[in-house]
Amino acid sequence: MVVATHSVAKAETIKPRLVVNIVVGAMRANDLERYEDGFGEGGFKRLMREGVTFTDAEYDYALTSTEAGLATLATGAQPSVHGVIGSSWWNHVDGTRENIIADRKAHPVPFSTGSVSCSPHRLHAPTLGDMLLMSNSQSKQVTVAIDPTTAIVLNGKQGTAYWVERNKTYWTTSTAYAHELPKWVERYNSEGTNSFYRLGRWTPKGNIVNYLNDEVAVVEDIKGKSTKLLSDVSLTLDDTAYGQMCYTPAGNTMLLEFASQVVAQEQLGSDTAPDVLNICLDTPRYIAEVYGPESIEYEDMLYRLDADLAEFLTYIYAQVGSQRHVIVVLTSDHGTSPSFNPQGGTTRERFNNRQMEVIVNAFLGARYGSGNYVLGFANNALYLNHELLNEKKLAIAAIQEEVATFILQLRGVSSAISATALRNTSFGEGRMRLVQQSFHATRSGDVIIDFLPGWIVESTDYRSTSHAGYRYDRSVPLIIAGAGIAPQRIDRKVSIVEVVPTVAKIMGIESPWACSARPIVELDN
Question: What pTM was estimated for this model as a whole?
Answer without folding.
Answer: 0.95
